[in-house]
């Protein structure tokens, strides 16, 4: 994985059609994509919650997605010292939305873990940094579709550290300005839950200027 010194600058980010994403798995598809080997984190144990975000049980991640059990996750908007947004493309080994783009880092909340704890852990892991400030909580919403359902806590953090994203999680990354990000919203395949979080952030005027 490239580091900051070799990262493709925002102006050089691909403007044309991106590589075709792998098919997004439905509720019963918890298997790896072609040639990728085992899907990441399918056996991770998560809390299962109800419509009020109360814990009602536990399940392995792959089973939770296959059975459409409601779980918890975090979305962390990361901005650098210039206010640009960290954008990345997910690897083709991700359990949901493989090879899609995302303007958030984050992930599932583990069994017995809190949202704040998960937000910091996931952000540091995905960015490949240590000593990140505690992300600022913004709001929470229920992401609910016929395929997936999870309570989603949205955060924001400033990162002026040198990022070195996990190659298992991140296939490409760059820091984009608000204008550059907006120009690509119609060009690239984005994770739908991230788009839902982004739209709520824009509506609340919490998105970067």
Please outline the helices and strands:
Elements: E1 45-49, E2 55-60, H1 61-66, E3 71-79, E4 85-90, E5 101-102, E6 105-108, H2 115-127, E7 136-144, E8 149-158, E9 170-176, H3 178-184, H4 192-203
Parallel strand pairs: 3-8
Antiparallel strand pairs: 1-2, 3-6, 4-5, 4-9, 7-8
Structural commentary:
The chain has 209 residues and is an alpha+beta fold. Helices cover 18% and strands 28% of the residues. Strand 7 (136-144) and strand 8 form a beta hairpin. Residues 1-38 have low confidence and may be disordered.
Work out the number of β strands. 9
Q: Which overall shape is indicated by the principal axes computed on the Cα atoms? A: globular
**What is the overall pLDDT average?**
83
How far apart the termini lie comes to 29 Å
Structural class: alpha+beta
What tags apply to this protein structure?
alpha+beta, globular, three-stranded antiparallel sheet, 209 residues, four-stranded mixed sheet
How would you summarize what this structure contains?
This protein has 209 residues and is an alpha+beta fold.
